[in-house]
Amino acid sequence: MAERDTPEAPEEGPQVGLFDSLKALLVTLVGIAHTRIELISTEVEEQFARLVSLLVWGLVAMFFAFTGVILSAIALIVVFWESNRVLAAAGMAVAFVLLAVIAVLVFIARAKARPRLFKASLGELAKDRRQLNSR
Q1: Most distant pair of Cα atoms in the chain: their distance
Q2: Quick one: what percent of the chain has pLDDT higher than 70?
Q3: Contact assessment for residue 85 and residue 77, using Cβ atoms and an 8 Å cutoff
Q4: Cα–Cα–Cα angle for 92, 96, 101, nearest 5°?
Q5: DSSP for residue 13
Q6: Number of other CB atoms surrounding residue 121 within 10 Å
Q7: Total domains present in the chain
Q8: Average pLDDT of the residues in 102-125
Q9: In this structure, is residue 135 part of a structural domain?
Q10: Which domain, by its residues, includes 74?
Q11: CB 125 within 8 A of CB 43
Q12: What is d(CA 94, CA 56) in angstroms, rounded to the nearest whole number?
């Protein structure tokens, strides 16, 4: 028993070696990478669904707007058929061009206002970097 009390005596129990530590580190890194890739995949799916939704609603709105505008223009020209049909047609053409310019400006503003792609993933990676740098 005197041999066990000396500092040179080996400790009993599992010893963790360099390769075991590297393996544990690799498992942790793979887990982190897997989580981040899943997050990126989710964000891509969300952006795709958002884009499809915007396109569908845009097409529906354009269809009904086009139908309403054409019927309104025809009605206005018919009302002024006897007196100023050319002036009514020209006025409708100017109004359509102005509305088209406004629609393009609104479209550009909404396209620029989209959320940043991979925002959550980039935030998580920045948090990981901060945690690793603080150690």
Answers
A1: 123
A2: 83
A3: yes
A4: 150
A5: S
A6: 19
A7: 1
A8: 79
A9: no
A10: 18-126
A11: no
A12: 28
